[in-house]
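So, could you explain this one?
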Amino acid sequence: MKEETNNFGYLSNLSKDIPSGLVVFFVALPLCLGISLASGAPLLSGVITGIVGGVVVAWLSGSQLAVSGPAAGLTVIVLNGIETLGSFELFLLAVLIAGILQLGLGFMKAGVIGLYFPSSVIKGMLAAIGLILILKQIPHFVGADEDFFGEMMFFQPDGRNTFSEIGYAFSKIQLGALIVGIVSLAVILLWDNPKVKSNKYLKLIPGALLAVVLAIILNVVFNNYVPALAIADSHLVNLPVLESFSDIKSEVAFMDLSGLTNPSLYIVAFTIAIVASLETLLSIEAIDKLDPHKRRSDTNRELKAQGVGNIVASLLGGLPMTAVIVRGSTNVAAGAQTRVSSFVHGVFLALSVFLLANLMNLIPLSALAAVLLVVGFKLTKPALYKTQFKLGLDQFIPFVVTVLAILFTDLLIGICVGLAVGVFYILKANYKSPYFYHKEEHRDRDIIRIKLSEHVSFLNKASIILTLDHLPHDSHVIIDGENSAFIDYDVVEAIQEFKKTAHERNIQVELINIQDVAVLDMH
């Protein structure tokens, strides 16, 4: 597939991509730090991966709008991997091998797997992510969440779950954080107003950027004039301040090659490669659905890009990466047009580490929670549920099951559950249309003609067997495969088995253009 940039020149879209990249940066920075913290890895390792995801992977990616970085879905794998291998330095070697495996998957064209996820399941995933974002950001919005920013699991590290955390948060509201959150949310919603968007000057300023700046000013005012409202440091961005090369060296870990003979290393690497690749393919498929220009991403190229990204990240001391739906959907919501937005986010992440750490540490998390609340609502609008319902139960049920399964477990488990339900409805649909059935009544015996369709796959086997089992006794059955370009071996075998035993029901069988196959006989 050719890169679809003909009508989306990078330079002509800078006025949209740079502000979008800045918005994604604000959201990505605390996510990178939080995931590092939760993974038991050095704090900067997540930021390093975010930088690589923006500066390197953005240009190699098969997608114009996806944003790569450390993913909350890999947190448990990273935590267990470090524990299994005994050190983060050895774990980096596993990330390197995982990257090489992903490169291999890309060259083997394994990205085609992404095309097999039903639309109802992908839409369910987006709606579920939106719901989770809203539910998870409420505690940060009121300044009462003790878990890391970006945590997405139903059962949380603090022992509470998504819903009980909200109840707990409302009993521990920090008024200053709540005021900042409300002001930030109001600014973002105001900036989303068509009147503001139509103003040629105001539309150049992202609402999220303005909200963050006002949030910093408000908290400075609180600190100096109303100390009771000052936001606690635990509810601000917490980036390490690097003032010298030795500071960088103490915050960054580098790979240990001594574990190459350890079998556990390859198990951890394989796990990272498979889970990261699946999460990437899911995210890419979802972002393509959100893309207002409906561009199709090259998923094989994306797997190669992720492979290179993980190799580079491992060499620099970073966590494993995926294309991340939260960052990608934030990117789309902010108005991004091309991959420049992801690149800009990576550049700002790098600047924040080396030049702007003190300024970044003034940002209240409640302001960033407001950004994600708006992104979450855009992903899970009531209109989406209404549209899916109108499409019929075969679309609505897999959609709702996916939403609930992700909400109460995690992304990959939820997708598997939704996929199983989606496949059931696909099988049910295939069951209905593998042939044309026509019955002619005659005095001596009925003539039944079963004309097979052009393509008869193993999915049609159940339908055909049930039809053959319920044919009336004493009939003449003609099974016609003349118009069939392909008949699956399993179906042919089932037809031949029927022919072999049809005489027991006094059924005369005539086959047209259906090959003979060996039928297992146990007698």
The two ends are 55 Å apart (CA to CA). DSSP finds 21 helices and eight strands in the chain.
